[in-house]
Design goal:
The complex is a heterodimer.
Chain A: H1 3-10, E1 17-22, H2 25-35, E2 43-49, E3 52-60, E4 65-73, E5 76-84, H3 96-99, H4 124-154
Antiparallel strand pairs in A: 1-2, 2-3, 3-4, 4-5
Chain B: H1 3-20, H2 22-35, H3 38-41, E1 47-49, H4 51-56, E2 65-69, E3 72-76, E4 81-84, E5 87-91, E6 96-102, E7 105-110, E8 114-117, E9 123-127, E10 137-143, E11 146-151, E12 154-159, E13 164-167, H5 183-190, E14 195-197, H6 198-207, H7 212-248
Antiparallel strand pairs in B: 1-14, 2-3, 3-4, 4-5, 6-7, 7-8, 8-9, 10-11, 11-12, 12-13
Chain lengths: 155, 249
């Protein structure tokens, strides 16, 4: 599935707003904790419309990047979709029996996923990559909403 | 066979075999001695950069490329690393396809990514096909204030605010092409060729694996020759001992 197709399925019949969240040093440090590696870049793109937002990340499973789309609504996961899987093993994470587990999940106060996700035998690294991307989307969405809420008061 | 003949044959073969495997014995003993002290000599932390070794190990030989943007050199080591002058600024997949300054930002086009950097070389964002970057990109240029992307399907005007690529009919006369880096950059980039640690090199030299299956066979043969050498040495010593004893009688 391409990014455009995923966006169309997340925002049927509407054109979502393209947004950017800027990352300061503190945010980058927090993101690095989720990802277990330094985050490269100073900004992240996302799409938003009617309280729904879509985040697309590329996370390394074992060796190759997995393109992961995460749709959020009211700070909870509406859907997780694997847009491109390039690894030779662990492709089970593409299937709904795995991705459907993320529906309705949020982030706890300790920035952890609010529900347990069952692993897939032989696909541990890919499962972890999808969990990291989902956690990152939930965290950045939370921060983006905070930034949006603080904007009018600054003006 | 008489004792005298036995002595002559064993000494002759001992000499021949000794001469034949002298080099291998030297390699085996020197590498063996060094390997016995790997930890104290910290051999695993000594890295060797060599294109000959990289070829022997079948490692990819990177082809560095560079391009000048606003009097600054943007270069790629042919593997992953991108440099602005001599500073490592980001990583992207080889080869480097183009680089251009547009709206105060530095844009670097690699095989699968478009990197956006501040003029100081701080990475702002990596645009990948997942974010809509067109496939089969070939070059990058700025013309009439537009950031143009050359692809297999034509030239596209790039709008990175809205992440949209629109086909256009204009194109520069010559697309800037990355070239072999100048000498001062080449030296730095060549130092980034894949490194092999000394411990691994010694192990593979000791076992002969450095030269593949043939090398292992040669080392096996030299080990067999060492066994033969000890036998011929014993036979020669024993024959001369018996001859001396008989002559005394």
């Amino acid at each position: 599935m391409t990014t455009d197709q995923y966006l169309q399925s997340a925002f049927p019949n509407t054109e979502p707003e393209r947004k950017i969240i800027w990352l300061n040093t503190e945010l980058k440090a927090q993101i690095s904790k989720f990802l277990y590696r330094p985050y490269k870049g100073l900004r992240v793109r996302y799409w938003q419309q009617d309280g729904r937002s879509v985040w697309i990340f590329e996370e390394i499973g074992k060796e190759m990047p997995i393109t992961i789309g995460v749709t959020l609504k009211q700070q909870q996961v509406e859907s997780v979709k694997i847009l491109a899987f390039r690894e030779s093993r662990g492709g089970e994470v593409r299937y709904p029996f795995f991705t459907d587990q993320f529906q309705g999940i949020g982030l706890t106060n300790k920035n952890k996923l609010s529900q347990h996700i069952d692993g897939v035998t032989g696909a541990t690294l890919s499962v972890n990559a999808v969990k990291r991307a989902t956690k990152l989307a939930l965290f950045l969405n939370q921060e983006a909403l905070k930034q949006q809420a603080s904007k009018p008061s600054q003006e | 066979m008489s004792l005298r003949n036995s002595l002559i044959y064993s000494v002759r073969w001992h000499r021949r075999i000794g001469f034949l495997c002298a080099l291998f014995v030297l390699i085996l003993s020197v590498t063996g001695l060094l390997l016995n002290h790997t930890s104290s000599l910290k051999l695993d932390s000594i890295k060797i950069h060599s294109s000959i070794l990289a070829n022997l190990y079948g490692l990819p030989s990177p082809q560095p490329l560079a391009l000048q943007v606003n009097k600054q050199w943007v270069s790629h080591d042919g593997s992953k690393q991108v440099y602005l002058q001599d500073k490592a600024i980001a990583q992207c997949s080889a080869p480097l396809l183009g680089a251009a300054q547009h709206k105060e930002l530095l844009h670097i086009l690699c095989q699968e990514e478009l990197l956006l950097l501040t003029p100081a070389g701080e990475l702002l964002e990596i645009i990948t096909p997942a974010l809509g970057l067109p496939l089969e990109t070939q070059a990058l240029a700025v013309l009439d204030g537009q950031l143009l992307l050359k692809t297999a399907n034509g030239t596209l005007n790039t709008d990175l605010e809205s992440l949209q690529w629109t086909p256009v009919t204009i194109a520069p006369e010559h697309w800037p092409n990355p070239q072999t880096p100048p000498a001062h950059l080449s030296q730095q980039l060549n130092a980034q060729t894949p490194a092999i640690d000394l411990e691994q090199l010694l192990l593979d030299l000791h076992s002969g694996r450095l030269f593949g299956g043939f090398g292992v066979l040669v080392m096996d043969l030299s080990a067999v020759l060492l066994i033969v050498l000890s036998i011929t040495g014993f036979v020669a010593w024993n024959s001369s001992r018996l001859i001396r004893r008989r002559s005394k009688r």
